[in-house]
Amino acid sequence: MSRILSLGIGNMGAALANTLLTSNPSSPLTIWNRTADRPLVKSLTAAGAQLQTDVATAIAGNDIILICVLDYDTIYSALSSASASAALAGKTVVNLTNGTPRQAADAQAWFRERGVARYFDGAVMVPPQLVGTPHSFLLYSGETEAAFTDGVAAPLASVGKALYTGEDVASAATDDLAALAAMYGMFSGALIGIGLLQRQLAKTAAGKGNNGSGAAKVKVTPAVESVVVPVLTALVPYITLIAKNVDDEAWDDNMGNPLGMQLAGVRNILQACKDEGVNGGALEMLVGLMQKVVDERGGDGGVPEVSRLMLE
Ligand SMILES: NC(=O)c1ccc[n+]([C@@H]2O[C@H](COP(=O)([O-])OP(=O)(O)OC[C@H]3O[C@@H](n4cnc5c(N)ncnc54)[C@H](OP(=O)(O)O)[C@@H]3O)[C@@H](O)[C@H]2O)c1
Ligand SMILES: *[C@@H]1O[C@H](CO)[C@@H](O)[C@H](O)[C@H]1NC(C)=O
Ligand SMILES: CC(=O)N[C@H]1CO[C@H](CO)[C@@H](O)[C@@H]1O
User: Fold this and answer.
1) Which of 29, 41, 251, 311 pairs as cysteine with 305 (C-beta 3.0–4.6 A)?
2) Alpha-carbon gap, residue 5 to 93, rounded angstroms
3) How many CA atoms lie within 13 A of 44 on its CB side?
4) How far apart are CA 174 and CA 56, in angstroms?
C-alpha cells in the first residue's frame, strides 16, 4: 500500500488530503504545510492526518509525494536542502499545482536530477468543494500510462476521475490551459453582455421614473438565465466542430454561419458597447482577426480559419 504525503494545505490541498483520509481511513496520510496555525491544517490533523514539520522526514517516510501549492519558489528552496533532495530519490512525485507547459517540463527535469523515480504533472479540473465527488475530474501526464496505472491511479482514485493525457509531461498543463482559456473567453463575453443588460435595464427603470435609486436595483439575472445561458449551452458542442475543421483545414466549411455574417454580428456588439458606454475591448481583437480573414479570402468561409492567425 502506498503511503501518501500531501505538500501544501491550502483550499485545494486540504480538499485532496481530506478526501484521501476519509476514503481510506486505514491508510495513514502525512501532511506538510508552510504556515503554522492554519485552520485547514488543524481540521486535517483532527481528522487523523499526521503533521510532519520537517519536509525531509516527511518525504523519507512516504512513497507518493502529492504537491498542490500556489507559489512554488519557497517550496523549491525547502525541497533543495540536502536532506530533502536525498529523500526524494526513488519517490513518485505527483504535482497538481497549476502552471504552464514549460514549467511542467522544467519541474520534471528538476525532480529527475534529484533521482525521483516517477514524476507526473497534473491538474485538478474542479473547485475544491467538488473534489472527491462524482463530478471530480483530474488530468495527469508524464512517464507512461502503464506507470500511471500501476503506481498512481489506485492510491489517488478517490480524489476524482483520472484522465491520463499523455507521456509528454507538458500535456496535462496544456489541456488545462486550453480549457481555462475557453472558460475565460466565455466569462469576458458574459461580462460584456451583462454590461449591455445593465445599461438597458437602467434606462428602462429611469423611463419608469425610478431615476437614481432605480439604476442600482436593475437585475440582469433573468435575462442571463432565460437567454444567455440557453444560447451558450446549445453552442458549446460547436467548439468540437471548430476543432475538426481546424484539423482538416476545412476553411470553406462555414457550418451555415459565414464569417462575413458573423463579422457584422460582432461589429453590432461593439457598436452597441460604444453607444451605451460598455467596455467591449475583449472582443476587439477577435473582430480584427475576422476582418483580416474576410479581407484575404472573402466572407464565405467559417470561423475556424481565424485559428491560422492565432499562431504567432
Ligand atoms: N481553488 C480552485 O478552485 C482550484 C481549482 C483547480 C485547480 N486549483 C489549483 O490548485 C492549486 C492550489 O490552489 P488553492 O486554491 O489550494 O490555493 P490556496 O488556498 O491559496 O493555497 C495555497 C497553498 O500553497 C501553499 N504555498 C503557497 N506558496 C508556498 C510556498 N512558497 N511554499 C510552500 N507552500 C506554499 C500555501 O501554504 P500556506 O498555508 O503556508 O500559505 C497553501 O497551502 C493552484 O495551482 C490552483 O491553480 C485550484
Ligand atoms: C509543479 O508544477 C507546476 C506547474 O507545472 C510548476 O510550475 C512547479 O514548478 C512544479 N513544482 C512545484 C514544486 O510546485
Ligand atoms: C512547517 C510548519 O510551519 N508547520 C506548521 C503547520 O501547522 C501546524 C498547526 O497549525 C503547526 O503546528 C506547524 O508548526
Assistant:
1) 251
2) 10
3) 32
4) 31
Sheet holding 4-7, edge to edge: 50-51, 29-32, 4-7, 64-67, 92-95, 118-124, 137-141, 161-166
List residues bridging with 141 in a β-sheet.
121, 166
Q: Cα(9)–Cα(74) distance, rounded to whole angstroms?
A: 14
Q: Whose CA is nearest to atom 2 of ligand 2?
A: 97
pLDDT in tens, 246-301: 999 999 999 999 999 999 999 999 999 999 999 999 999 999 999 999 999 999 99
Atom of ligand 2 nearest to the CA of 95: 1
The CA 41 to ligand 3 mean position distance, Å, reads 8
For residues 108 and 121, the answer to whether their CB atoms sit within 8 Å is yes
User: For the CA atoms of 271, 274, 278, 280, what is the dihedral angle to 10 degrees?
Assistant: 50
Does the CB atom of residue 74 touch ligand 1 within 6 A? Answer: yes
CB within 8 Å of 181: residues ≥ 6 apart: none
Contact 269, 282 (CB under 8 A): no
Q: 179-192, pLDDT tens digit by residue? A: 999 999 999 999 99
Is pTM beyond 0.70? Reply is yes
96-124 in b/e form (b: 16+ CB < 10 A) is bbbbebebbbebbebbeebebbbbbbbbb
Closest CA to 124 of 87, 91, 161: 161
CA-proximal residue: ligand 3, atom 10 (nearest): 37
The HSE-up count of residue 304 (CA atoms within 13 Å, CB side) is: 19
Among candidate residues 40, 62, 52, 59, the one with its CA nearest the CA of residue 128:
40
